[in-house]
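Project channel, design review

CF: Before we commit to the Streptomonospora algeriensis constructs, I'd like one complete example in the thread so the newer folks can see what an input/output pair looks like. Taking PIG-L deacetylase family protein.
RD: sounds good, go ahead.
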Amino acid sequence: MFDWSKQRLLVIAPHPDDEVLGCGGLLHKAKTAGAEVYVQFLTVGDTADVSDRGFSTASERVGEIKAVADHYRWDDWQIAFPGDDYHLRLDAVPRFEIANTVERHSPLSIASVEPTVVIAPHQLSYNQDHQAAAEAVHTALRPSDTRRRHHPELVLAYEEAADQWRQEPAGTPNLLVELGQADFDAKITAMRLYGSQCHDHPHTRSELTLQSLAVLRGMQGGVASAEGYYAMRWLA
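CF: and here is what came back for PIG-L deacetylase family protein:
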């Protein structure tokens, strides 16, 4: 049984709400157990959404982050590339710059936090910001001498329901994390706090979609509810 109480988690989220969609249940499970949790957002800007105006401002979305951070009791969070010059445009930022930010140039970089667990988006997401983030994390965590660079023992890619839209399916996740009812409830509550990004069903960010995916992954592990991950490194 993996002991989450001894872990220091660093989550890479391309945008606010990706961390909840991908690993919101695990974040509650780990924090409740006693883990440290840090979230590195890459970018946020004005965003088209379901509000009466049809968009939410970056400042409004930062307000949502603060509410979610308080809900989860994160140890810290930070936005690396704020503003519309970067939001939904990370694929135009040199990969070297994003990788260096994740590796050592951010206050919540791998070098600064020295996490035991890094959780990032999957490289097969259709979203260009998610792809750029995933590739940058792969570069930042490249194999090297552990005496010179920090190597997290566990590196995971989280899934979102829309990831399967790509024609290069990632296959079934190879690591399942069981969620208790409190863990799943915390995930739903956090998603509601991202009010500008919630949608009614059918939508990839509806509550029913999150519940359905959790039930499916739970069934695959013989439990009521779970989140699925792709283990990229597990140094036991």
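RD: helpful, thanks. The two ends are 12 Å apart (CA to CA).
CF: The chain has one domain: 4-234.
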